[in-house]
Amino acid sequence: MNYIGLQTQIRRNTYRSVFMLVLFPCVILGLTWLGIFVSNLFLDYNEYAYQYDYQLGNQQITFLQVLPWVVAVCGIWFVIAYFSHSFIINKATGAKTLERRENKRVYNLTENLCIGIGMPMPIVNIIEDDSLNAFASGINKRNYTVTLSRGIIDKLDDKELEAVIAHELMHIRNHDVKVMMVAIVFVGIFSFLTQFMTRILIHRPRVSSGRNGKGNGAGTILIILLILVLAIIGYSITFLMKLAISRKREYMADAGSAEMTKNPAGLASALRKISADPLIEAIEQNDVAQLFIENPIKKRASFLNELFATHPPIEKRIAFLEQV
Known about the structure:
The protein is mainly alpha-helical. The protein has two domains: about 5-95 and about 180-245, no CATH class; about 95-175 and about 245-324, Metalloproteases ("zincins"), catalytic domain (Zincin-like, 2-Layer Sandwich), CATH 3.30.2010. The protein has helices at about 5-40, 50-95, 105-115, 150-155, 160-175, 175-205, 215-245, 250-260, 265-275, 285-290, 305, 315-324; strands spanning about 95, 125, 135, 145-150. It has a four-stranded mixed beta sheet with strand order 1-2-4-3, sandwiched between helices. The termini are close together.
């Protein structure tokens, strides 16, 4: 892997965050316009259906009426996500705060690493699960968090655990966590809007049959078409998010951990133990799975899963560390 400087990686992650924030409203507004267009085309099937000017004018009027509501919903969602993302992630992962008196060992290891790189002490959380996994999260210094499973604390020695914590601190330092937070919010709101629009379409009162009694059939076609379009766009967005959250971020964090601890063998040994049992029972959403040092959800081995995985194979990461 070619070497990338820390500042270069931080700039790239900042650009990715901005790109996704700009892309999001564009996709939502484009989807809204498309939904209105198809709705006018099929559900308003009447004597004016063949008049292009009428349809286009009706399309623009409806879009302008809906526009403020779409912008408001997106804005409210981002405000909620910004102020409550930590709660949402903790709820999804089953994480809770680990107090210093409960485990001074973890706090001492984390503090020593933070002092060494001049970094503020993050919040430390724990997931009560015997499996081995960890992740970093947060948007700013006040809510940067390192979360460790009970298993990874109990089953790793000091050198291995220090290397894992250093890996997560590097995700914070590289601003990887900001990119991942934006991606989770992005995919989450799209999933919500998809379900919301689908329910509205399904429960929408039937319109009159229109000319030749084709109204109801056209409405059914509309529902199928919109659901298909939403599925395609949802897949495309997920694909873009996974491209934006480059798998190289894990190699960067691994290399940063090795540099921080001066012990690449410690992280390599930790990864071997993690690979044997990374599954967290509380994790059910793929959206948060990308945060972890190793995927906590069981997946069947397949070419597509490997191609679109947000984590590189752990064997390659170990091989990389052995060359550092």
